[in-house]
Amino acid sequence: xxxxxxxxxxxxxxxxxxxxxxxxxxxxxxxxxxxxxxxxxxxxxxxxxxxxxxxxxxxxxxxxxxxxxxxxxxxxxxxxxxxxxxxxxxxxxxxxxxxxxxxxxxxxxxxxxxxxxxxxxxxxxxxxxxxxxxxxxxxxxxxxxxxxxxxxxxxxxxxxxxxxxxxxxxxxxxxxxxxxxxxxxxxxxxxxxxxxxxxxxxxxxxxxxxxxxxxxxxxxxxxxxxxxxxxxxxxxxxxxxxxxxxxxxxxxxxxxxxxxxxxxxxxxxxxxxxxxxxxxxxxxxxxxxxx
Length: 291
Hints:
This protein is an alpha+beta fold. It has helices at 19-35, 39-62, 73-77, 118-121, 149-160, 199-205, 223-237, 251-262, 276-280, 283-288, and strands at 81-91, 94-99, 126-130, 133-134, 164-172, 178-184, 210-211. The model is unreliable at 268-291 (pLDDT under 50).
């Protein structure tokens, strides 16, 4: 009686190793033979190298800085670039950034999200001070706001609030903020390869900020001269804070005056009459004018 087909003993199927796996195995074996090192030592070394490489990639591309305290002096010394979303703008030259490293923050591969409530954002953002620009001061610590502080704040909000920006970290200032060169998200090209417009230059060009000239000023590759040139152009065109002329108190003068008053000095206000009537009068007319 012929044997039934299912009565024959079956052997487990064999799956050939892929060419890449075979090549790696042969490489390890050959290297072990040439160096005299045990195969398991080489395998352990390769595995450790792979793990180390993964850690480096994670720290460089995927580790999220939860706050300014997570940024080390080494990151600042290397002028590390980070990207993130601006979740709030408190003053006209600084904002809060939620760091969004790697991918997964936007469609079609969105599996991570930026918190939308102040409670969820607490202790999860980096306080960024925009390098190179000095905007009108808002009311703080009982001091009155400068003219155009509200308008300058609205301008910055229109540029960055709720949007992605790229920051090159520079240093930490006396208030614990991270000073950074800030670039807007490019419109067409990928942000991982290209950066958009420098935010500080846009602020100065539009007349909603002056050039920051105090200690520790940073101007990037553009240089101080380019900032000052854009400031002069804004003054000539009467843009932003220069709409009524150039005789008003700058943010730097405002801060120096209030610092002196806080120290006990009596520094008179340097605010001047910037009305068109005062600007039109020559020195002879002002001398004999009774008005």
